[in-house]
Design goal:
single chain; mainly alpha; 0% strand; 3 helices; 51 residues
Length: 51
């Protein structure tokens, strides 16, 4: 059984947050959710935002 890396799991979580909120009119709560999820993993956050 292959396990996903922590970076991959975080990337999936960030993508899910963005997908759930794609039609929102107020981005502030979405950005807050993303920042909480990402904690100090800025490189994964940058990659997710770029996609």
């Amino acid at each position: 059984m292959t396990r996903l890396s922590a970076d991959t799991l975080l990337s999936i979580e960030l993508g899910a947050i963005c997908s759930r909120n794609r039609y929102t009119t107020d981005p502030a709560p979405v950005v807050e959710q993303l920042l909480i999820a990402v904690s100090d993993r800025v490189e994964v956050f940058r990659e997710a935002v770029g996609s």
